[in-house]
């Protein structure tokens, strides 16, 4: 069994646990699997280091920008990652290009595992994001509820929300539905770096017609 903290071998009814060493990752697939284990944990635990990746995009001029986002969902077998954002944000504008890609960067200092994952990115259909929006509590709707688009200049410091936000009931925040978007990056390439004092390890992953092509590369 592969685990991020230990490596276990069973001898009949007895299981021996070895601490994490480079030998834990004997194949690129094991490193890939370890990263997905962290992603799946992060999905459920918002305090997990993989829960707040840095996501990068480029604008129409090719100028890059990066920001921290919350990883909302991920799917290992299909190889995709999802986040929420305001459809009026700069990053959403970067998705207008039909070939738009996002690059996600994850780092877990305890596991010493960096994951970079890049691929075509698009918004899910409005009926899906609308159904998700219905489940959002009022405090989670805040991020999509400013009457002016994110990044609009303000005359003075402020959160940009309507003045009567605090007194509104949930239904009075429904207008934010139109701003709420779920984007999905279907991973095409990924790069995993595992830091270890006995020797770093790095794996390159490429989506292939049937699964993934992995190769060890020089760290
Ligand atoms: C911890 C943390 C979590 C964040 N989560 C999100 C998020 O899930 N979605 C989002 O659009 N912005 C999120 N933000 C804000 C973004 O980092 C960014 O400031 C905002 O989305 C505007 O980015 P843009 O102008 O590049 O589009 C988060 C920021 C921090 C610090």
Describe this structure in words.
- The chain is of the alpha+beta class and 219 residues long.
- Helix content is 16%, strand content 37%.
- The protein has a domain at 26-125 and 178-217: Pnp Oxidase, Chain A.
- Strands 3, 4, 5, 6, 7, 8, 9, 10 and 11 form a nine-stranded antiparallel β-sheet that branches.
- A hairpin with a 4-residue loop joins strand 7 (101-108) and strand 8.
- Flavin mononucleotide binds at residues 52, 65, 67-70, 83-86, 89-91, 150-151.
List the helices and strands and how they pair.
Elements: E1 6-11, E2 14-19, H1 28-44, E3 54-58, E4 64-68, E5 73-75, E6 80-86, H2 90-93, E7 101-108, E8 113-123, H3 126-135, H4 138-141, E9 180-194, E10 201-208, E11 211-217
Antiparallel strand pairs: 1-2, 3-4, 3-7, 5-6, 6-9, 7-8, 8-9, 9-10, 10-11
Helix content estimate: 10-25%
The N- and C-terminal alpha carbons lie at a distance of 26 Å
The averaged pLDDT comes out at 92
Write out the distinct hetero groups bound to the structure: flavin mononucleotide
Largest sheet: 9 strands, antiparallel
CATH class bucket of the domain at 26-125 and 178-217: Mainly Beta
Structural class: alpha+beta
CATH superfamily of the domain at 26-125 and 178-217: Electron Transport, Fmn-binding Protein, Chain A
CATH topology of the domain at 26-125 and 178-217: Pnp Oxidase, Chain A
Number of helices: 4
């Amino acid at each position: 069994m592969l685990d991020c903290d230990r490596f276990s071998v069973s001898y009949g009814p007895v299981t021996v646990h070895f601490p994490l060493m480079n030998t834990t990752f004997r194949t690129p697939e094991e490193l890939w699997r370890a990263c997905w284990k962290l992603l799946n944990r992060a999905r459920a635990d918002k305090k997990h280091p993989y829960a707040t990746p840095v996501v990068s995009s480029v604008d129409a001029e090719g100028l890059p920008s990066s920001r921290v986002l919350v990883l909302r969902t991920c799917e290992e077998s299909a190889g995709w990652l999802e986040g929420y954002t305001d459809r009026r944000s700069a990053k959403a504008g970067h998705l207008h290009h039909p070939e738009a890609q996002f690059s996600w960067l994850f780092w877990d200092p305890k596991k010493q595992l960096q994951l970079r994952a890049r691929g075509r990115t698009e918004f899910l259909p409005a009926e899906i994001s609308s159904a998700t929006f219905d489940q959002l509590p009022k405090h989670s709707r805040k991020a999509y509820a400013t009457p002016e688009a994110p990044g609009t200049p303000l005359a003075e410091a402020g959160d940009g929300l309507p003045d009567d936000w605090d007194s509104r009931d949930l239904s009075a925040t429904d207008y934010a539905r139109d701003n709420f978007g779920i984007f999905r990056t279907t991973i095409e390439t990924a790069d995993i770096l595992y830091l270890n004092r006995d020797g770093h390890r790095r794996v390159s992953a490429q989506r292939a017609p049937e699964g993934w092509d992995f190769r060890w590369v020089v760290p």
